[in-house]
Amino acid sequence: EVQFVESGGGLVQAGGSLRLSCEASGFRFGEYVIGWFRQAPGKEREGVSCISAYDGETYYADSVKGRFTITKDNAKNTVYLQMNSLKPEDTAVYFCAADPRLYYWRGSVYRNLVDYWGQGIQVTVSA
Predict the structure, then answer these.
(1) What DSSP designation does 14 have?
(2) CA proximity to 123, closest of 19, 15, 3
(3) How far apart are the first and last CA of the chain?
(4) Do the strands 18-25 and 33-39 form a parallel or antiparallel pair, or are they unpaired?
(5) Under the phi-then-psi rule, with left for phi > 0, alpha for psi from -120 to 50, and beta for the rest, what region is 63?
């Protein structure tokens, strides 16, 4: 059974930082790309960032480049998203996800094809 344990969300003021963690189990972690999507109220789910567990290749949405950093610990089957300089527009439910294809994070057309999803964790950034 595939499971994700997502943690680290919460409420923070603009300019602050949060670190999301996603511990995965139930699939071959080293063969997947793992990362985060987010969905704000009234908006489509969008790819935020991901990292390949087998070669370390990363992807960042333009809106978070330079502010977010994604890392992984293959020994712990865990991916981390360090979010700095948070803005109110970063407010959303963040979903951990896994799929072998990194490009799935780039386009909304692929959203429904992603293999595995976590339940989501709320991130709220106050102005």
Answers:
(1) T
(2) 19
(3) 40
(4) unpaired
(5) alpha
Amino acid at 124: T
Q: Say how far apart CA 25 and CA 20 lie, in whole Å.
A: 17
- Tell me the C-alpha distance between 58 and 18, whole Å: 19
| Per-residue pLDDT of the chain in tens (127 residues, 90 and over written 9) | 999 999 999 999 999 999 999 999 999 999 999 999 999 999 999 999 999 999 999 999 999 999 999 999 999 999 999 999 999 999 999 999 999 999 999 987 888 899 999 999 999 999 9
Secondary structure of 46-77 as H, E, C letters: EEEEEEECCCCCEEECCCCCCCEEEEEEHHHC
